[in-house]
Specification:
The protein is built from 16 helices and 13 strands. It has a 7-stranded mixed beta sheet, covered by helices on one side. Strands 9-10-8-11-12-13 form a 6-stranded mixed beta sheet, with helices on both faces. With 463 residues, it is of the alpha/beta class. It binds guanosine-5'-triphosphate and magnesium ion. Guanosine-5'-triphosphate (GTP) binds next to α8. The site of magnesium ion has 5 residues, from α8.
């Protein structure tokens, strides 16, 4: 990636909107230091600002009005986030004051930063690759400890290193092919197809496949899964939601049709965010409001990643339960027999026996029985490999990476087939080169501008 030193200076509020103890304004670019001199008066006189040192003083507007008391730090490039000169003003957290100071900075010649522009500058300056830039966003949006951990690893270059490892292997093979193209009549056999395919499979194809598998799990870790609780009215859906949340979140009554709207809450099971959705009990209805609720429940059911299908142990499987159950067959689902406290163990065994090939559990939402088992079953339902992949994973390619990894893998498989089929060396080189180009799109080595824009536009301003 070519380095384009920015000619303009950008500024933005870097802290979240709203009231906070402090609010930080970030300035980056060639005029950062000059702006600091113009608008910041240190409490004690300093002829110049030393780099990476905090100064206490006042921020003054063009007309001399004092806007705030603040701490200021000047960080000389390239030892900065953007590799440019950076200034940070640590002001009082009033959004109004911050806006006022920012306006003053713009009046003095800086321009508003675009979304993610500080990080984009870090990327364009070559300080981080594109996967590290994306990790910044992941870290800001991380919902659980696990996803934060993966984001930090990615920020530290974990994914980049893995991709670099694969890229180097590709280059080694490509170099061999180039030699074979340049010296077609050489007596010495430059390419040993058997050796080459073996090395391609172990050092390129297998790691690519693993990264794709990690991406599948990574999506689950980052974004979580939608877990929708469905069943007839009164089977105990809201009671289950409450038991999972350890709080009386949803109304529970003995009257069927209590829940009208959907209720959404989030928990995490071993670091996986689970978006729990309690729904209206599905039945034939007269009431138009209930009908809307039931339609909404069906909609959520269609969107679900996992369905918890609740059955009342006492009344067992009726016609309505069977109808609903029939719609779940192509969905990842668990069957939950609730209110097991109300039936004998024989009756319970009989009900459980009606679903011989299903994942089925018996619980009592009201008495909090079997909830830990349900959490474990839910975890197993969404996680591959009994969680081994998830627990060992140190990085997780995102959706963008995944689609490029799939193209890279496809090109490598074509290359593999072409080698086995005895294709001419120059054709082999073309296939491998295309795999190499794809890989470059992930790290940003060869990424077109519009993709970069798409990545950075997801950031907030100030990052
Ligand atoms: N004995 C017993 N009663 C339960 C259990 N779970 C729920 N109930 C009772 O069953 C009734 C209905 O519970 P809810 O949680 O409101 O049921 P629901 O499926 O959300 O009902 P709708 O919102 O009307 O569809 C309430 O009286 C609960 O106290 C359980 O495990 N054991
Ligand atoms: Mg309910």
């Amino acid at each position: 990636m070519a380095v384009h030193p920015a000619t303009d200076t950008i500024a933005a509020i870097a802290t979240a909107p709203g009231m906070g103890g402090i609010g930080i304004i970030r300035i980056s670019g060639p005029e950062a230091l000059s702006l600091l001199h113009q608008m910041f008066v240190p409490h004690k006189f300093h002829p110049h600002f030393s780099s990476h040192k905090l100064y206490y003083g006042t921020i003054v507007a063009l007309d001399g009005q004092v806007l705030d008391e603040a701490l200021a730090v000047y960080m000389r490039g390239p030892a900065t986030y953007t590799r440019e000169d950076v200034v940070e003003l640590h002001c009082h957290g009033s959004y109004f004051v911050l806006q006022e100071i920012l306006r003053n900075i713009f009046e003095r010649g800086a321009r508003p930063a675009e979304n993610g522009e500080f990080t984009k500058r870090a990327f364009l300056a070559g300080r981080i690759d594109l996967t590290q830039a994306e990790a910044v966003l992941d870290l800001l949006q991380a919902q659980t400890e696990k996803s934060a951990h993966l984001a930090v690893n990615q920020l530290r270059g974990e994914l980049f290193q893995k991709l670099e490892g694969i890229r180097k292997e590709m280059i080694t093979i490509l170099a061999l092919l180039e030699v074979a193209i340049d010296f077609p009549d050489d007596d010495v056999e430059i390419i040993n197809i058997a050796q080459l395919t073996a090395s391609l499979r172990s050092t390129i194809i297998a790691p690519l496949e693993r990264l794709i598998a990690l991406a599948e799990q990574g999506k689950i870790i980052r974004e979580g899964v939608k877990v929708v609780i469905v069943g007839r009215p009164n089977v105990g859906k809201s009671s289950l939601l409450n038991a999972l949340l350890h709080e009386e979140r949803a109304l529970v009554t003995s009257t069927p049709g209590t829940t009208r709207d959907t209720i959404e809450e989030q928990i995490a099971i071993r670091g996986i965010p689970m978006h729990l959705i309690d729904t209206a009990g599905i039945r034939m209805h007269e009431d138009p409001v209930e009908a809307l609720g039931i339609e909404r429940a069906r909609q959520k059911l269609r969107e679900a990643d996992v369905v918890l299908f609740l059955v009342d142990a006492l009344s067992g499987m009726g016609t309505r339960d069977r109808e609903l159950y029939a719609t779940l067959q192509d969905k990842n689902h668990l069957i939950i027999i609730n209110k097991r406290d109300l039936v004998s163990s024989e009756a319970l065994q009989c009900l459980l026996g009606a679903f011989p090939h299903e994942k089925i559990l018996a619980i009592s939402a009201k008495q909090n029985q079997g909830i830990d088992g349900l959490l474990e079953a839910l975890y197993q339902a969404v996680i591959a490999d009994n969680g081994a992949l998830c627990e060992q994973m140190t990085c997780a390619p995102n959706v963008r990476h995944r689609s490029i990894l799939a193209k890279t893998l496809a090109a490598c498989l074509r290359f593999d087939q072409a080698m086995i089929g005895g294709a001419p060396v120059d054709l082999l080189a073309v296939e491998l080169q295309s795999a190499l180009d794809y890989l470059g799109d992930i790290t940003g080595l060869t990424t077109p501008d519009e993709i970069l824009d798409a990545v950075f536009s997801q950031f907030c301003i100030g990052k």
